[in-house]
Amino acid sequence: MTEYAGTASGPAARPVRVSSWNGWDPLRHVIVGRADGAVVQAPEPAVRRDYPDDGFPLGSYGPMPAEMTAEANEQLDDFAGMLRRRGIRVDRPTPLDFSEPVATPDWTHPTMSGCMPPRDLLLTVGGEVLEATMSYRSRWFEYLCYRPVLKRLFDADPAMRWEAAPKPRLTDASYHTDFWDTYHTLSTEEQLARVRAYDLVLTEEEPLFDAADVARFGKDLFVQLSFVTNRSGYQWLKRHFPDHRVHAVTSTNTHPLHIDATWVPLRPGLVLHCGERLADAELMEFFRRNDWEVVEAVQPASWDHPPKLSFCSPWLAGNILNLDPGTLCVEEKEVRLAEQLSSYGFEVVPVPFRAVGPFGGGLHCATVDIERDGTCEDYFPRRHGRF
Fold first, then answer.
1. What are the C-alpha distances in Å from 312 to residues 305, 356, 360, 381, 384?
2. Which residue among 66, 191, 282, 332 is least crowded, i.e. fewest CB within 10 A of its CB?
3. 365 catalytic, yes or no?
4. Where are the domains of the chain?
């Protein structure tokens, strides 16, 4: 269902156009996720959920509590309404029955997951929307939630390119199946060494990546190697976008999962990074050599963490959405972050969104850009080292 408001001169009257090269140009069209039907996933090689204090100890799974789902949906709906009032066209996914078991010829799995974080699945680069591979069996069929929206976009915009990365088989050969049995027994330094060496849960059996591990800066795409993105996935993206410079980056986080709460572009020349997960020194130097200021985010607001059934860290605070180069949506309780960003001249729009976190992320995770003004520009003319 497309949800937007407009007059003869508003968003409803504008032709549908797929075009977005970065995360800060003026936003015209977006997908906002839904919390309907989301479940705590059954254990699988890529991920294990363990919430003993919340009624879901390791090995258990099932629907998220109804009251949590309702509160998250209320915040998602209110967020979508605020965007529409600002003249932004909004699409929403079509939920499935995520509590149903799923199967391919290679495996069966007791549950799916949900359709709250569309940013994980879809990547818009220019006039193309690309469906990511995904690396969780519980999320293998999630693309079906977005097919109605993508078909409407394809029909409405004759220039749109609709692509899907090769669907992975996700057999046991794609995972180090004993990874979770041993990783948590390692020291922090040992875990960080594994991250730097990219010796994590995924093997290189096949290309695997989540779209949320890609940060778009015009001609440059930065791909984080993580628990859900392997080197082969990075190589696939590099070959798929031959007109871009596609860079692999690693994290200093012991649990790397998506780049959009770690390395956050704000506008040309300004990038925010998580104060707890400093970027690799060569990446920092590359940005600074190209006259970008790298800003360390303030500590997130003090709040009970993790909230019930949430796998997100407090640094989800940095998972913000740009409406244009001067306007940022920030979770309403992150007052210190809002003040920090305001000091750089941004208008900050506070958005109640804490209830959405347990369903897969923050304001950036919950959205996918379909159209932003602007063109593909080169923000990094000074090349250096592996960049």
1. 9, 10, 7, 35, 34
2. 66
3. yes
4. 17-372
**DSSP line for 260-274:** TTTEEEEETTEEEE-
Q: Residues 220-273: pLDDT tens digits?
A: 999 999 999 999 999 999 999 999 999 999 877 888 889 988 889 999 999 999
* Pair 136, 44: CB distance under 8 Å: yes
Check if 258 is active-site. yes
Q: Going by DSSP bridges, is the β-strand pair 27-32/89-91 parallel, antiparallel, or unpaired?
A: parallel
On whether the CB atoms of residues 102 and 109 are closer than 8 A, the answer is yes
Q: Say if CB 217 and CB 22 are below 8 A apart.
A: yes
Give the DSSP H or E segment for 196.
helix 188-196
**197: burial class by Cβ within 10 Å (0-12, 13-18, 19+)?**
exposed
Q: Which of 258, 274, 312, 369 is catalytic?
A: 258
May I ask the CATH class of domain 17-372?
alpha beta
Catalytic residue among 210, 220, 260, 369: 210
pLDDT of residue 3: 47
Judge whether 75 and 139 are in contact, CB under 8 Å.
Answer: no
Nearest Cα neighbor of 215 from 300, 304, 305, 322 is 322
Q: What are phi and psi of 263, to 5 degrees?
A: -135, 95
Q: Look up residue 16 and give its DSSP letter.
A: P
Q: What is the dihedral of CA 132, 373, 334, 285, to 10 degrees?
A: 70
Given a contact cutoff of 8 angstroms between Cβ atoms, the answer to whether 213 and 222 are in contact is no
- The alpha carbon dihedral of 202, 206, 207, 208 has a sign of negative
User: DSSP readout, 331-366?
Assistant: ETT-HHHHHHHHTTT-EEEEE--GGGGGGT-STTTT
DSSP 20: B
Residue 56 CA to residue 40 CA, distance in Å, equals 8
The question of whether 145 is a catalytic residue gets the answer: no
Lookup: tokens for 326: 């001067």
Sign of CA dihedral 125, 128, 133, 139: positive
* Residue 14 confidence class, pLDDT cut points 50, 70, 90: confident
Per the document, the length of the chain is: 387
Please state, in angstroms and rounded to a whole number, the distance separating the CA atoms of residues 119 and 365.
Answer: 5
pTM score of the predicted model: 0.94
Question: Distance between CA 210 and CA 133 in Å, rounded?
Answer: 7
Catalytic residue among 115, 312, 329, 365: 365
Residue carrying structure tokens 């998580």 = 274
